[in-house]
Design goal:
Shape: elongated
Number of strands: 0
Distance between the termini: 48 Å
Order of helices and strands: HH
Number of domains: 1
Length: 52
């Protein structure tokens, strides 16, 4: 294995851990009922985009 492959492996591992952290946090938010309905999210996004 050369240094470039090792760097790619490190980056892949780092990205995978980041995704797993986000997934874990999302699952906890769902369990704690800290969710926002999809329609409210889209309405807020549309409002923010119109204000830019």
């Amino acid at each position: 294995m050369n240094i470039t492959e090792e760097q790619n492996d490190y980056e892949n591992t780092k990205n995978t851990l980041g995704i797993l952290r986000i997934l874990s946090q999302s699952e906890k938010e769902i369990e704690d009922n800290e969710i926002i309905p999809q329609d409210k999210v889209f309405k807020k996004l549309e409002k923010n985009l119109k204000n830019e």
